[in-house]
Amino acid sequence: RKEVEQDPGPFNVPEGATVAFNCTYSNSASQSFFWYRQDCRKEPKLLMSVYSSGNEDGRFTAQLNRASQYISLLIRDSKLSDSATYLCVVRYTGFQKLVFGTGTRLLVSP
Amino acid sequence: SAVISQKPSRDICQRGTSLTIQCQVDSQVTMMFWYRQQPGQSLTLIATANQGSEATYESGFVIDKFPISRPNLTFSTLTVSNMSPEDSSIYLCSVEAGLGGYGANVLTFGAGSRLTVL
């Protein structure tokens, strides 16, 4: 089983749609959680951290469920510019290493 | 956040040769990381470049194949030695900069070096 698993997609949605991605992690000692965004042929960039209580940044909402060991990302009112691959990232307690999921690809169409 | 310059941005190399990738950061950082992203795959950590000591390699990666230098707090190199087509990948340099919650730093990446081995 992979340490961090994501549905690879692609998720094809029209502009204005709401879309949600899930990510599961296998190590219960995981401490920190992030969503990164990677555009085609570009480097990954931090989208948002994921807090235990859940957090929102504009159209983006991240949730963490430690009991079930999954993280979610909700995007409301999708824009064409949201088209990208979204990477779920986990850091284990006491380690500097970040573990990346394989990413979920989102395609937003007009 | 830190600004990372990475070069070359891309290269096409012959089997059996070696390529050195350079990573320059605009500020001093304690830890620098080298990742690989193979086609259609996610990022895999190769090693952590430590200033003043040998790099720390992840399982599956060895110093003979991926020698790393870290002469100071702003610069590192990764060499891909004796290349084969399986080494065709994007190699990314990254540093921890800024706070991402939990008091944890988050990674900033260079633009990557796209390597094709023929």
Q: Classify the beta-strand content of chain B into a percent band.
A: over 45%
What is the ordering of alpha helices and beta strands of chain A? EEEEEEEEEEE
Number of strands of chain B: 11
Question: Uncertain segments of chain A of ≥5 residues (pLDDT<50)?
Answer: none
| Gross geometry of chain A | globular
Fraction of helical residues of chain A:
under 10%
Class of secondary structure makeup of chain B:
mainly beta
Shape of chain B: globular
Distance between the termini of chain A: 37 Å
Q: Tell me the strand percentage band of chain A.
A: over 45%
Radius of gyration of chain A (CA) equals 13 Å
Protein chains sharing the most extensive interface: A-B, 21 and 22 residues
Largest sheet of chain B: 7 strands, mixed
Helix content estimate of chain B: under 10%
SSE ordering of chain B: EEEEEEEEEEE
Low-confidence stretches of chain B: none
Number of helices of chain A: 0
Category from helices, strands and their pairing of chain A? mainly beta
Global mean pLDDT of chain A: 91
Instruction: Give the count of helical stretches of chain B.
Output: 0
For the termini of chain B, the CA-CA separation is 36 Å
Notes on the structure:
The complex is a heterodimer of chains A (110) and B (118). In chain A, 0% of the residues lie in helices and 56% in strands. Chain A contains no helices and eleven strands. The mean pLDDT of chain A is 91. By secondary structure, chain B is mostly beta strands. Chain B has no helices and eleven strands. In chain B, strands 2, 4, 5, 6, 9, 10 and 11 form a seven-stranded mixed sheet that branches. Chain B is globular, with a radius of gyration of 14 Å. The chains are: A mainly beta (110), B mainly beta (118). The A-B interface holds A 31-32, 34, 41-46, 49-51, 87, 91, 96-98, 100-103 and B 31, 41-45, 48, 58, 92, 96, 100-102, 104, 106-112, 114.
